[in-house]
Each structure stands twice: as structure tokens, then as C-alpha cells.
Amino acid sequence: MSNRFFQFDLLAQDGQARAGVFTTPHGDLHTPVFAPVGTQATVKAVTPAQLEEVGASLVLANTYHLYLRPGSQLIADLGGLHEYMQWPQPILTDSGGYQVFSLAGMRKIDEDGVTFKSYIDGSMHRFTPESATAIQEQLGADIIMAFDECAIPDQYDYSLKAMERTHRWAERCQAAHTRQDQALFGIVQGGIFPDLREKSARFISNLDFPGHAIGGLSVGESKTDMYRTIEFVNTILPVEKPRYLMGVGSPEDLIHGIQRGIDIFDCVLPTRLARHQAAMTFTGRLNLLNSVHTRDPRPIDETCVCYTCQHFSRAYLRHLIQAKEILAATLISIHNLHTLIELARRARQAILEGNFQPFATSFLENYKV
Questions:
Q1: Does this model's pTM top 0.90?
Q2: CA 101, CA 243: separation in Å to the nearest integer?
Q3: Active site includes 225?
Q4: SS3 category, 249
Q5: Residue 186's beta-bridge partner residues?
Q6: CATH label, 7-267, candidates 3.20.20.105, 3.30.470.20, 3.90.1150.10, 2.30.30.60
Q7: What would the mean pLDDT of 73-82 be, rounded to a whole number?
Q8: Which residues pair with 117 in a beta bridge?
Q9: Run of H or E including 64
């Protein structure tokens, strides 16, 4: 599919690991890249200026939540997501498929779409492939997702039905998509079953989307199954298009994903951990509420150049946590986001230099899960 707004250039490969540039209307994404999650058109506890300072180049926003509040039409009327949330760089929106999956007992799936109950006021709503695409067109993100059905990963019959429905919905999303300044990605489903994943990867690839996402992982399956599935699917997806692993973003998963050919990641983990007193480092997590940090003058990571580590001690951060000060979430989020974005940047540099494999091996040997 030719599109003057989007281009993916693969600059280097080291094994299956890839370094590239994905051109979008709001700037270039230097892949591999990690995207902070801004569910409600905001990355929790940090400002857009702080996001830029930590090196973020892509932010994810949530179609399901923004449709319910404040409404996609309102956001469109106010200039689209970039203007609304004052983020000048690329934005990615999901289609709402995962949120529908997580609404057990509150939704009904049929061939045409999904009827679901609002978690805000209990009102009833309906998503179809056409409406999910139209909502994302109103939101105005650079990268949007086809509406899919995410299944419980180890249930074969359910995974088969959800995969086949996802394929039919992908064709409908493609037919409904009208904005050429948005890249619509297809989503590969199929649980942890190689035969289903192969069928899905081939079907979605043949639809000639400008990029592909791997969905239905990090939803309860083992790490071994997740890594195996990523590696298998990426032997089928076309090399010349970007690959997005949906909702995965712990440091070790980032490295394992890059090692297996993933280009784009997103996850709520860095900001969620920050709100629960946990800091990410290149060697493991740090619980800042532990009493051992009471008088510790060191930063979270003495090698880190983020704003938090350049100015504040573990002792001060522990004090903020104990005092229930909002600033604790902001400062730890800044550090955690910087850590993942920097990890992706270093991995990219290692790929360009042809030494990613020793880089990955060293990282995984020193990282304690």
C-alpha cells in the first residue's frame, strides 16, 4: 500500500533485531521505540513538556475511554488529539478491542460488532469495525488500529472464532478507512497456537496494511509462550513494514521483543509502577517505600541522567511517598519513562553498530525480574 504520509525505512538488522525510521505526518519514529500510554489523552502524572524531556516520540491514547468521555466529536471539534492534549509528535490510538475483551459480563459480541455498558454511567453503547474506525478518524491519531477481538490465549476454540472474526473485521475497517494521513494497522490474533497465528499473520499481511500489530499477548500466557509467539509471527510478517507489539513494555520484555523483530512497544507499566512506589532500573525494580531508603542520599540510579535522578535522593522520594504527595508519582514516572525510552534508544544504537546480541545478553544476565 503506497501512502505519501507514511514510509518505513529499515536501516540495519542484527539477527532479527531491527533499527528503522517510520515517517508520519507529525514526525519520524526512530525504531525500536517505546510509547508511553496516555489512556485519557494524558500520560498519568506528567506533562507533555516532561514527556518530551524524557525523550518520548510517540504516545498512545485509548479510543474506548475517549469515546465515552469527553467524546470523539468534541475532540474533533477542538482540533483533534494533537491540539487537544498539546502533544505535537506522533500519536497512536487503539481501537477499543482490548477494552471490550476485558469487559467480561458487561458486553455482548456478535458478528456485526460489540454492545457494551459504560463503566462511567452504565449506559449502553455499540462498537462496530466501521464505528471504531470513524471514532479514530475523529480523534486524529497518526497510527490507528483495526477493530479486533482479543481472546483468552490458551482456549483454542475461542481463539479460532475470535481470529476469524478479527479477519472479517479487519477487511471492514480497511473498507471504512478514509483518512490517508492516518496509518491503519491490522492486528494478528490467534492466542498461543502456532497454526492460528500463522493463518492470522498470513491473512493480515495479505491485506497490505502499512503496518502490523501483534495482539492478544501479555494477557495471561507464560513468558515462554509470549516470546515463542512473537518470534514465530515475525517470521511471517513482511520485513518492510513496522511491527507493533501491543501492551508489552517491561524492560526484559522490551529486549526479548526487539531480539525477535519488534519495532514499536507501548505499556502502562512505567507510570503504574510509579504510582505504587516502584522504580525501574537496568538491573531490576526498586521499592522506594522500603525503610532502607530513609536516609539514602543516592538517586534512584547513579548512572541515570533524567531530571529526577539529577536532582532528588531516594530518601526524598520515600518521604514524598509516605506523605502521600502527588509529586512522588510525577518524579518516579519521569524516571521510569526515561528508563524504558533510553533502553530502546540504546538497543537501537547497538543494532546500528552491529553488536545488539552481546548488548541483549549482557542486559538480560544483569536484570533481576
A1: yes
A2: 22
A3: no
A4: coil
A5: 212
A6: 3.20.20.105
A7: 98
A8: 124
A9: helix 63-68
